[in-house]
User: What shape does this take?
Amino acid sequence: MPADAQPTLLAIFGRFLRFGLLAWGGPIAQIAMVKRELVEEERWLEPSRFNRLLAIYQVLPGPEAHEICVHIGMMKRGRVGGLLAGLGFMLPGLVLILAIAWLYGRLNLDQPLIAAAFLGIQIGVVALIVRAVHKIADHALGDRLLWAVALTSAAATALGVHFWIVLPVAGLAYALGASGRYGLALLTIGIAALAAVATGGGASSLAAGPGTTASLAGQGSVPALPLFLSGLKAGLLTFGGAYTAIPFVRSDAVGRGWVSDAQFLDALALGGIIPAPLVIFTTFIGYLAGGLTGALAITAGVFLPAFALALLFYDRLERVVEDERLHRLLEGVAAGVVGLVAVTAAQLGWTVAGSVPSLLWAAVLFAAALLLLYRWRSRLAVPAVVLGSGLAGAALFA
Assistant: This one.
């Protein structure tokens, strides 16, 4: 289809629904699929413009594959086209994760074989997060100052400083330091440290108890509004891929007792084996915490920024992101998020280590999963690790 052709609204929805059905392998594979069909084969837009859009959405928060779909839909048929493109892309994953969450709630999770399989899956998911931290760091930490921001953010998070303090300071400190104003950068960090001490660190500790898969913590009792706000927070702070949403969602979901750490890991695992943006794992958590209403509420919160950025700021995005000051601020925030995700991975690993009957076999399984993720670069790697870890867990821990 030429760049100036106008598909019908139904055709827009159908095309992006198809993309949603085939959205395996994470954002890189999803973006490659959209580019191959709409840019290289059908020429809905020029390659240079697609690459510029990708660069913009990689800087901004939210799932970039979904945001690009919304943007392209809007290019073709205005805001209604963008809305239908986004809904089509996310609908298959939403339906699948709701069905999986419904089945999960009806499993006999006390049955030894099932419990052992999920324990193995949780070990595999910790390996997935560790690998993701490395990949995000490679992309986000382009100089020594960004590495310093990430390490400082990790240390502050480990000491219990709330991310509402850590992330703004990370962005400001890097923006100031990158422009040569090191004194102001250090002053900003010092003021933030005093604020953290004065507020007792912000009460951000997520060292929740081990929590087992068998105990459905929220049991559908959490109201829709806090779930929506939790999802909105994650959607606004997700820089560099869906894995960066993990610390923010866990802060609420585990920190407030909506789900256990084990259930949180199960959500990540099951969200990773279906064709969908990985951030769809939040829907699973919303279902456990607040039933169908809670699932839809947290999903709406997570995806609202992805829709809003394209639908409301369509004409301004390229100009805004070209502002070097904003670019440095967002780079600093992204580096801070890397530190948060690294600490969260360590906390989740510690929680799982407290649940396994054999640390030796758990370490072997973790190492094998991590090795597979590093050596096998395929869209099937994540489902293979999740399913393989489950089978290994059933064999080793039942």
In short: The chain has two domains: 9-94, 98-397. The longest helix spans residues 64-104.
